[in-house]
Design goal:
Blueprint: E1 4-8, H1 15-24, E2 28-33, H2 35-38, H3 43-46, E3 51-54, H4 60-74, E4 76-81, H5 87-96, H6 113-122, E5 130-133, H7 136-144, E6 152-156, E7 166-168, H8 174-181, E8 198-202, E9 208-216, E10 219-230, E11 238-243, H9 249-266, E12 271-280, E13 283-290, H10 298-306, H11 310-318, E14 332-340, E15 344-350, E16 358-363, E17 370-371, E18 379-388, H12 391-403, E19 406-410
Parallel strand pairs: 1-2, 1-4, 2-3
Antiparallel strand pairs: 5-8, 6-7, 6-8, 9-10, 9-12, 10-11, 11-14, 12-13, 14-18, 15-17, 15-19, 16-18
Length: about 400
Amino acid sequence: MTRGVLLFGAESSAAEDVVDAARDLGLSVHLATHAEVYDGYADVLKRKFTGTVFTDFRSPQKALEDLELYCTTQGISGVVVGWEFLSPLATRLAARLELPGHDVDRADAVRNKRTMAELFGKYAVPSPLCAAATSVEAAAASIRAGALTFPLVVKPAENAGSVGVAVIDSLDELPEAFERARQWTHEFPYGIPLDTTVLVQEYLEGPEFSIETVAFEGSFDHLAITQKFTTGGGICEETGHTVPAQLDAATRISVLEVVEQGLTALGVRNGVAHTELKVTPDGPRIIEVGARPPGGHIMKVVEHATGISEARGYVQAAIGHRPDTRPLRAGAAAIRFLSTSKRGVFSGLSGAHPGKGVVAVQSYPAPGDRIGNDYERFTRIGHVIVKAGTPALANQLADDVVAGISIDLEN
């Protein structure tokens, strides 16, 4: 029987990269999902799976039992995650099967930001001051107590992708931000109940970065420090990423030291981690960590810049093989997202011309799709990926390409 891996969900932009990496390693790939969610996957993706197991992620104990039985009959050698909301359950399944994974006693901490903040406090990991509240009155009381000063970040304990996150400058703005953070009580598309606790956090000044890491037996191999670009204002949304970030040697060392403190505190042992961090005037401080592949096509950007396949390293760590993370080149790459604040019917992209250094120009909606929603200022329409010899050149090329593209909408 061919050795296989079980993928939890295939919703993220990185999921297909992980599937392809596993197949390239000669492994069969099996999918755990809901039947109704599976029906919405593209046929080209469905054909890549050797088998599929349907369960109900809303009932974690029953799902564990279903998946354990499936794995023991299918020769599953590793468990990987394609949808970050499923990472705690994947950690628990790996532990039950005695497969490589993370510390099962801290499984929730890499998904629930309240639990994460508690562990960061316990182990003195440099991170924002934080108060958790289940009512706006309790949140206001924490602010009045004096430990937290404006501006402040208000965010849900258990959502993702900046959904429900706001920056506020006064108590008057707290009620609206608090209710916004609690608006989503269940994850989509699986309907998993979410912790509706709200976090009120110190706002960190300074540039933002993410660190892409492959962990193996509790040791960490940091593939890249990625510079993150966002919109301004009270609701920050990502506009792009560049690899590598332009940091001096001393700052780079301090960033990676803080990341390793955070990963150790959260019990990250085998797999990948995506750490979001700001370099403040007082030094690097972690915003949050996800024990899953990064979103936003960051793995593709890392590979274009360095030649390292984070997806391959992830699968290798998950099956107990030492990951191959040797860089093959020292270049740079950047992704910029094509977004719009307008609403309408998408008809296409204009001015998207291939050129030297342009790796990809991709649109997400199909012509005729309606654009706009109630939880983002900007709707992400697509992306541009470029590569160059240096980060500065990659940034300039990416900005130039984006400047020449128009998003065409009809009323």
